[in-house]
Amino acid sequence: GGRGGGGPAGGPPAAPPGSDTYKGWLFKWTNYLKGYQRRWFVLSNGLLSYYRTQAEMAHTCRGTINLSTAHIDTEDSCNIVLSNGGRTYHLKANSEVERQRWVTALELAKAKAIRMRNNQSDDSGDEEPASQSDKSELHGPLKTLSSKLEDLSTCNELIAKHGAALQRSLSELENLRLPADSGEKIKAVNERATLFRITSNAMINACRDFLDLAESHSRKWQRLLQHEREQRIRLEETIEQLAKQHNSLERACRGAPGLAAGSASSAGTAKGSVPSAKGEASDEDEETEYFDAMEDAPAFITVTADPKHHRRSGSNLSGASEGHPEDWTLEDSVFESSNQSSYNESTGRDVLPRKRRRSRIPDKPNYSLNLWSIMKNCIGKELSKIPMPVNFNEPLSMLQRLTEDLEYHELLDKAVKCESSTEQMCFVAAFSVSSYSTTVHRTAKPFNPLLGETFELDRLEELGFRSLCEQVSHHPPAAAHHVYSRRGWTLWQEITIASKFRGKYLSIMPLGAIHLEFHSSGNHYVWRKVTSTVHNIIVGKLWIDQSGEIEIVNHKSKDKCQLKFTPYSYFSRDVPRKVTGVVSDADGRAHYVMSGTWDEKMECSKIVHSSHGSTSTEGKQKTVYQTLSPKVLWRKYPLPENAENMYFFSELALTLNEPEERVAPTDSRLRPDQRLMESGRWDEANVEKQRLEEKQRAVRRRREAEAVEAMEEGKDYEGYIPLWFERKVDAVTGELICVYKGGYWEAKDKQDWAVCPDIF
């Protein structure tokens, strides 16, 4: 079903393109029942908002999209597609001319918003001390005004000098014997010269008054600014003191007999003790508000059934059960796991022996640096915009971190063999959780990729898959990823990382959908990542938590899996890093219960009976699932020896930056600052990092200037075009997404890298 047009959208927009505010009627796609609906759109300050009517502007905004991080695309002569992370607007104008007006206005507003954001915070790290910056902001304009006033005074003196000479010449002409009408004309000219001199004197006096006023206000601004600076310093000291007190209180709580016993019992329910990093902080009150969206998650209780009882009688099986319990055996089920094998052991028979790869990197140097001293000036800012030395990085780029999602690719190889779509969903769910296992100790920040940077991981002969990542956008930073496996699956995604520093913790929110398709069955799974939070920025040991919900949908069979990542709380009796979920079919009937932790393992239990239990304290009725014994689908590989001195890299992560021949000249392995950091030469890496970022900024400024020039001339400007990916509207989600267009592996075979830019 396509999208059909509506009727005339109404008169022309209320303001010309290029002005600060732009308003008008457009048609917005709503759904397949209502199609396009007429809406009133307002473009102002880099934000596009819409309302049902003009009257709604006073009280109800139906939606807003930030243009500084949005992609603008045109489908046909009248359509506009705006995409920002997970939000997409399909708009239709009344005519091609009107659409072009809107596109021009949107592009200009986007360019202006990006410039404003870049001015607020550049990622160069060349920030002056606050006092120097403030002084230059105050005294710079006054100095310029004084200079201009001196220029005006000089001009005034020249005007007075030449005016006096002109009047003398005119007086001499009056004394000459000339016709009567000439004398009248000379007199008129003399009067005008006098008026001109009086006016210029008045202008100079007005300028002098303006400068006096500016100087008086400057002193007032300086006093106010000094007051605000002192308040800010006091606030920073208070926050730091509160954080230290908070840390002391937590340690005191751990020593309290009642709480200590409760904590010990809850920790005992998990396999192994809670890592010490987790005991460093508790953000119970803070996180309650932050994660309140999870309160609607379905509550359920799992009870393990007696397998012998269910083998004797199948009458107790609920309609939710898929097949018979006796099918749930290790011998004949694809659930038989080889997760106990190490990373270096081959899991398939159709691949060549694995190539010997490196198993260690140089130890991390022991540099001490205060993170709070850098980040206290960055509260509320985008993480990618915070000037950071490599001291807080790890020697991998975000593209390589994205590729680490494939560490447990064998889960997808097993999922291919599943005959049941709900059973296959269990493996897909376990795979989605496994991608977080590498983050538990990884508190360092990966390098932000440069625009056009790529990373390939060709394991086709060894493991059956090959992967390609490319940085397709710089503002907002977005990476496209495509993986093909000859064992029967393809995965692709475009991820934009939105991150904010909240004062005590960092929130990292990946935006964008992950797509997975199995070749033989055509099952197409889509899910999104949860929020990652880095705690203890001010004081204590850094630690990471994952929280939120993942909904995995099979768009062919309509099966679903709802996974809940429980946020950590020191006072909770739940297993730390707990993940729970239920796999259900298109009719909503539950088939499997998923349980485990995102840093250790995931288990799957087959449901044989479900019933409604007692009402919880929140007033919700819990479902009781009677299940067979759980089976381990995924278990985390142990870390290599000496991992704590190698940035806690897994065995796969240790190989990602290993030099390889024949890769593209834009590959992350060839990035010089990252290579220097891995070698332990951090000072040189910082210098090289600044050089690369300045080179990228110069290219960005040139591209922005070209865009503005093209818009002023009324021409279309395509902007940056990705090398190996192209932007399309996804048929499943309706979002604008970068998908692999082909050509990379063919270029590698020919070693033809002519299309690659010089970014390093």
Provide a descriptive summary of the structure in words.
This protein is an alpha+beta fold and 760 residues long. Among the domains are: 21-117, PH-domain like (Roll); 394-748, Porin. 34% of the residues lie in helices and 24% in strands. The protein is built from 14 helices and 27 strands. The strands form 4 sheets. Strands 4-3-2-1-7-6-5 form a 7-stranded antiparallel β-sheet, covered by helices on one side. The chain has a 6-stranded antiparallel barrel with strand order 14-15-18-19-17-16. β23 and β24 (621-627) form a beta hairpin. α12 (672-678) packs antiparallel against α13 (682-712). The longest helix is centred in the N-terminal third of the chain and has 76 residues, at 180-255. The protein is elongated and about 130 Å long. Mean pLDDT is 78; it is low at 1-9, 121-131, 259-298, 311-327 and 337-351.
Brief digest:
This protein is α+β, with helices and mostly antiparallel strands and 760 residues long. The protein is built from 14 helices and 27 strands.
CATH architecture of the domain at 394-748: Beta Barrel
Arithmetic mean of pLDDT: 78
Distance between the termini: 46 Å
Ranges where pLDDT stays below 50 over 5 or more residues in a row are 1-9, 121-131, 259-298, 311-327, 337-351
Question: What is the gyration radius calculated from CA atoms?
Answer: 33 Å
Strand pairing plus helix content: what structural class? alpha+beta
- Proportion of residues in β-strands: 15-25%
Helix share bin: 25-40%
According to DSSP, the number of beta strands is: 27
| Sheet with most strands: strand arrangement | 4-3-2-1-7-6-5
CATH class division of the domain at 394-748: Mainly Beta
Major sheet, described briefly? 7 strands, antiparallel
- Helix run count: 14
Gross morphology is: elongated
CATH topology category name of the domain at 394-748: Porin
Coiled coil: 225-252
Pfam families: Oxysterol_BP, PH
Organism: Pomatostomus ruficeps (Chestnut-crowned babbler)
Domain PH: 19-111
